[in-house]
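Supplementary Note 3. Input sequence used for the single-chain structure prediction.
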Amino acid sequence: MSWDVIFNPETLAMYGQGLLTTLSLLLSCLLIGGVLALLGALALTGNNLILRKLVGACTYFIRGTPLLIQVYLIYYGLAQLEWIQARWDTIWPWTHFKEPFFCALLAFSLNTAGYTAEMLAGAIRETNPGEVEAARAMGMSRWQIMRRIVLPSALRRTLPPYSNEVVMMLHSTSLASTVPSLTDVTAVASRIYSDFYLPFEAYLAAAVIYLCVTFALIGFFRLMEKRFLGYLAPRKA
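The predicted structure, written as discrete structure tokens, is reproduced below.
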């Protein structure tokens, strides 16, 4: 094995740039997906039947198809339509579809939104009825109950499964390497492999990077769970 290439300053700089791209994709898709997931969860638990069915169909499609297919549908499908390409130099938001980063970000955001919306909707439905009844007895409106009682409780209880979703999204960002001109950690490893024919070293270095980021995320969410879910922990005798 030859590790000199991996520890070369230029190679390390490439991995660093790839890590920045990966983290940018992850954080951006979690932010956008989080907002979409909140709106989706409210729709899934709301009284509007049409909106509930529509959002449910979207989350069903997202959860029922591979993320790679969703990336291809957006970058090689939607972004390549003549109708969009005729407008992607002048008309917003179609101007963004010529950017590989945007296409990957859109696919990742919609994917994590679909899974997170269902998790949050489930937590909303499982809210203790006693809490809701107590809020109603105090004269709170439906939206006040949702904002002050149901959502804070549901968000806290969603933390453990959401931490798994975040880690899965980190690993899923490796699919960004399938989009041309987008250099994430996996794409850097593939480039080193093609240039120097060092598959083991290149991909092992990428695995170590993903592993370190995963440990950091797990540690962060454990602190969050300890902070916001400490009241659910068994009491010590």
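The chain has one domain: 3-226. The chain has a mean pLDDT of 89.
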